[in-house]
Amino acid sequence: MKIDGVAHRSIWPAEHGRSVHIIDQTQLPHRFVTTELTTPEAAATAIRDMWVRGAPLIGATAAYGLAMALARDPSDAGLAQAAAQLAATRPTAINLRWALDAVTASVAPLPESARAAAAWAKAGEICDEDVEVNHAIGRHGLTLIREIAARKNQGKGGGKGGGEPVNILTHCNAGWLATVDWGTATSPIYQAHDAGIPVHVWVDETRPRNQGAGLTAWELGRHGVSHRLVVDNAGGHLMQHGLVDMVIVGTDRTTATGDVCNKIGTYLKALAAHDNGVPFHVALPSSTIDWTVSDGLREIPIEERSGREVTHLTGLTEDGRSETIAITPPTTEATNPAFDVTPARLVTSLITERGICAASADGLASLFPERRAAS
Ligand code: MRU
Asked: CB of 204 within 8 A of CB of 230?
């Protein structure tokens, strides 16, 4: 997507083909800093410490990390050990394992001398495919936004760029920064905006790491999409007052039965949407579906992060210094689950690269029939 008119991806290989560049997302929105990852250890750190984050992007970064590991040790043992180390960086998003499995499957049959180059090429394919898939998600999701725009503006004669905006609430950052490009939840939004359909986005701040405030607001603003930041607790109130036409969120792992695991707080938005008759859509690449899991609540591992993310805040002082402050008494301890599970019954639809379906085993099987046979 564009930053002030210039197209960017969130990860890109160095020209010599031995390292990758990333945007250090811990520095946003205050500073746009890019970093070069040259070793598998650096790739693992970037994922664990959330310089890169978002399910598809951590998969892409891990794929490059594995290619770097194979340049050092292309043996079967080296491959298995590096894949295990990268997989252990974050537990919830299934794309991480998916990408590592894809690279492993493509290099394992090859002689050791060919593995690093093949892994590098596969990581590039994973990135290019992510861009295409997210673009397709956007095309499908756009139909939902168009329908609402048409309904809201019926008889009002709103032309291109005019009329009542479609108000979309989103949680966390499922934007281009969370993927290689386009984003998942944001892809329909960007495509509607680019098509001249008026959209307005309610951005949940997404405590404790504030991915909404720091990342979603930043990228929407840079692309010129109308938006407003709200505290996480505001969504229900906005819905009660008719100020939200639809919710679109992303997901870190979706079960074969349509349960959706996403950033902590997503479940509460789904409950509020359900109570207020607001459609609640989840946008996802099929690499986010864990076909081996059918009960999201019991089977998906939920990442527990440091309580310090809850008890402290980091931001920019008025004179431009980054500062971390405590917001609790020093003895207060915090629990910090990073994700929650929204049961399929609260999800209006899943927006995938193959189209839109019900959040159910049958819905997913209608789009991915080859998977029904496999599971
Ligand atoms: O902890 P994060 O920032 O990696 O969490 C990201 C999310 O929860 C996103 O909504 C999800 O990965 C979907 S990204 C397209």
From this structure: yes
pLDDT digits (tens, 9 = 90+) for 28-84: 999 999 999 999 999 999 999 999 999 999 999 999 999 999 999 999 999 999 999
Question: 227 CB less than 6 Å from ligand 1?
Answer: no
Q: Is 10 in the pocket of ligand 1 (CB under 6 A)?
A: no
One-letter amino acid at 106 equals: S
% of residues, the chain, pLDDT over 90: 93
375 pLDDT tier (thresholds 50, 70, 90): low
Residue 122 marked as a ligand binder? no
Instruction: Tell whether the torsion through CA atoms of 284, 285, 287 and 291 is positive or negative.
Output: positive
Asked if 244 and 169 count as a contact pair (C-beta separation under 8 A), the reply is: yes
Residue 55 contacts residue 252 (beta carbons within 8 Å): yes
| CA of 159 relative to ligand 1 center, distance in Å | 35
131/11 Cα distance (integer angstroms): 11
Give just the sign of the alpha carbon dihedral 201, 204, 206, 210.
Answer: positive
Tokens of 272: 């509020």
Quick check: 155 pLDDT over 80?
no
Q: Is 195 annotated as a binding residue?
A: no
Asked if 304 and 71 count as a contact pair (C-beta separation under 8 A), the reply is no
Q: Is 207 annotated as a binding residue?
A: no
Alpha carbon distance, N-terminus to C-terminus of the chain: 36
130 annotated active-site: no
Give the CATH H-level superfamily of domain 159-371: Translation initiation factor eif-2b; domain 2 (3.40.50.10470)
Nearest protein Cα to ligand 1, atom 5: 54
Architecture of domain 2-127: Up-down Bundle (1.20)
Domain-by-domain residue ranges, the chain? Answer: 2-127, 159-371
Q: Ligand 1 within 6 A of 211 CB?
A: yes
53 lines ligand 1 (CB under 6 A): yes
